[in-house]
Amino acid sequence: MAIFLLGFFILITLINILFFIGYFSFASAKESTSTSTPPVSVIICAKNEAENLKDFIPFILEQTYPNFEVILVNDASIDNTLEVMEQFEALDHRLRLVNVQNNEAFWGKKKYALTLGIKKAKNSTLLFTDADCRPESKLWISEMASNFEPNKTIVLGYGGYLKNKGSFLNKLIRYETLLTAIQYFSFAKWGIPYMGVGRNLAYTSQEFYNQNGFATHLHIKSGDDDLFVNQAGTQHNTAITFNKSSITRSIPKTNFSNWILQKRRHISTAKFYKKKHKFLLASFYLSQVGFWILLTSLLILKIYWPMVLGIFLLRLIIQYTVYYKSAKKLDEMDLLWLIPFLEVFLIFTQLSIFSMNVFSKPTNWK
User: Fold this and answer.
1) In the chain, which ranges are continuous DSSP H helix?
2) Are 256 and 250 in contact (CB under 8 A)?
3) Do β-strands 68-75 and 95-100 pair in parallel, antiparallel, or remain unpaired?
4) pLDDT higher for 101 or 66?
5) Rounded CA separation 307/209 (Å)
6) Which 8-state DSSP code applies to residue 225?
7) Where is the Glycosyltransferase 2-like domain (predicted)?
8) Distance, CA of 286 to CA of 26 (rounded, Å)
9) How far apart are CA 249 and CA 160, in angstroms?
10) All structural domains of the chain
11) Mean pLDDT of the chain
């Protein structure tokens, strides 16, 4: 029995390590040197985001890009979001508004509102972000747009979260976001892109129409970003950018219940991914769960504990090497010393979210 547990632990750890080694494809990647400058339409869909729009729209308008417009989509807000948008529109000719009324067939569906925003755009290069999101640099549009080439119609960027040094929840949210980015950037480098984040995502209108928009998953509440990339992304048409000037950061949740609700919506879309993506993601997650359960069990039972500790340290060194390189690229270095604790907490939080989603459906996006 002891030998069996040790052997299973070694197997699970090897699977985990293979994924970390695979993630080197992003961690060791070099930045693009392209200088493409197509006209860009920045699209921001907002529902009850009046205060955030006041704070963050100026960051968009300060971009140094030579040719861009901003499409503000009011998704049937009940606060004064529309009034705030109209005030900005009156001050800057680059802003254009789409006011979405409640529609019985598409009520509460962000994908419907986004589709109207895309149809309003006059440029074929579309760049998406959220109302509570700000670019880290005045070169954000430039960095995202420069990755478009004749054969590159989708660009995945990093959408991080603003830092709150004294908050464990903030670090957990940013760690989960970092890990997700490592995965979707690495998968894209492997030639099997599976998702992007709507806080920092770009694609061409031609790609959107080639895919018939969101038609295949319009009935699903979330997934305007990850399900679209999962459907449309290929090894040939998808580019990634991780230059610090291309990063955006959003306001994170400040209590666990709101964050759990947000993650329930996000995780609920994963079952609609392609089978190969689901297999790889599930394999990595289960190898993590198995590693920590077996590690704890073997140490408590004192089964070959010196060897078990050696295996743990080997995994930790490889993991830290990959995460260090990735965190340095994405400016998340303060998370490194907490990685083992954040990893364990996130794994079992996700397990509880999976369980909750089995018994009840998450609510709409707003």
Assistant:
1) 2-22, 24-27, 50-61, 81-91, 110-120, 140-145, 168-190, 205-210, 226-232, 256-268, 275-300, 305-329, 339-359
2) no
3) parallel
4) 66
5) 56
6) T
7) 41-172
8) 22
9) 5
10) 2-25+276-357 (no CATH), 32-259 (3.90.550.10)
11) 91
Supply the pTM of this predicted model: 0.92
* Pick from 28, 59, 19, 45: nearest CA to 245: 59
51, 22 contact by CB (below 8 A): no
Phi, psi of 120 (to 5 degrees): -75, -25
Strands 125-130 vs 201-204: parallel, antiparallel or unpaired: antiparallel
CA 134 to chain centre: 15
Spatial strand order in the sheet of 68-75: 95-100, 68-75, 40-46, 125-130, 201-204, 154-156, 238-240
> Cα separation of 317 and 16, whole Å?
13
- CA 105-114-73 angle, to 5 degrees, is 105
Residues 178-187: b if buried by 16+ CB within 10 A, e if exposed: bbbbbbbbbb
Cα 57 to Cα 34: distance, rounded to the nearest angstrom: 27
Which residue, among 105, 45, 106, has the nearest Cα to 77 in the 3D structure?
A: 45
pLDDT tens across 216-259, in order?
888 787 889 999 999 999 999 999 999 999 999 999 988 988 88
Report DSSP state, residue 162. Answer: -
Helix (H), strand (E) at residue 330: none
In sequence order, which residues have a C-beta less than 8 Å from that of residue 131 and are 6 or more positions away? Answer: 44, 45, 46, 49, 52, 53, 56
Round to whole Å and give the CA distance between 358 and 201: 29
What amino acid occupies position 36?
A: S
